[in-house]
Amino acid sequence: MSLxxxxxxSATLRSLALLGAWLLVWEIGYLVEYTAPVxxxxxxxxxxxxxxxxxxxxxxxxxxxxxVVITFTTRGDHNLPLTDLETLRAGLLFGVAHLTPYGIGAAxxxxxARRAARDITRIVVTFLVxxxxxxxxxxxxxxxxxxxxxxxPAHEVSxxxxxxxxxxxxxxxxxxxxxxxxxxxLFPGRLFDPSELPVGAYARPSVRxxxxxxxxxxxxxxxxxxxxxxxxxxxxxxxxxxxxxxxWTACTESPLTNTLxxxxxxxxxxxxxxxxxRTIRTVVCPGGCRAVSGQxxxxxxxx
Length: 303
Known about the structure:
Layout: H1 3-7, H2 11-29, E1 33-35, E2 38-39, H3 43-54, H4 60-77, H5 84-115, H6 120-148, H7 157-186, H8 209-230, H9 243-252, H10 255-276, H11 280-289
Antiparallel strand pairs: 1-2
Helix pairs in contact: 2-3, 2-4, 3-5, 3-7, 4-5, 5-6, 6-7, 7-10, 7-11, 8-9, 8-10, 10-11
């Protein structure tokens, strides 16, 4: 029996599968944790947003349970002096603060997709705006909730709000399109299906893609090595040269190919930052800024 057929059997199985995937993706975010519960590359934000876009409010219970579970895990990892009841309260507060902005943004994106299904440009621009504003709103709600629940000192908010915002925004921009595709493939009862949009999402990569993406990887690794060897924070800005080959693939490859390419590049940046342990905030931020370049491909219905 395939995974998709297995998930169709009951809503409970789907909720458990989503919860397990959410917790697994959360653990990946620990690669570049900036401080306790703040990561400058936060892939679980992408999965949260994608789940709320595709599944709607039915995804909220599993995601809320995940927020509570991870709060208990964080308490143990960082030896926070909280009782079980205080931790449960903190987890629920965190869950509401994390889910509310993305739930609103997901509803807006679905409504626009239904009304302007032929206007890909408007949908892509709306997605970018929602990713930026939704993650900013999330940071504005989650950080005070962490302070109120004694999981973060108040004086650390000024130092963590920017990496928190950028981390959530990078996670949504780079990975939400990939997670949306996976959820649509595996989960029934979806409220949003990108295959209904006028894009050639399943076209195969061109012959030149391997060479262009090889250049992306070479530039990425070279930038990390330059930052590690020179120990100059400004050297990390060389990563902006990644925009050039990604602009090429955005104009020559399908949205599916670009989504996978951007997601892998995002993960590789986070992995190398963790490996080299250098200039985390400077290196990772640009990855989120150009993360959805591939989604602009075929922006005109007649393209």
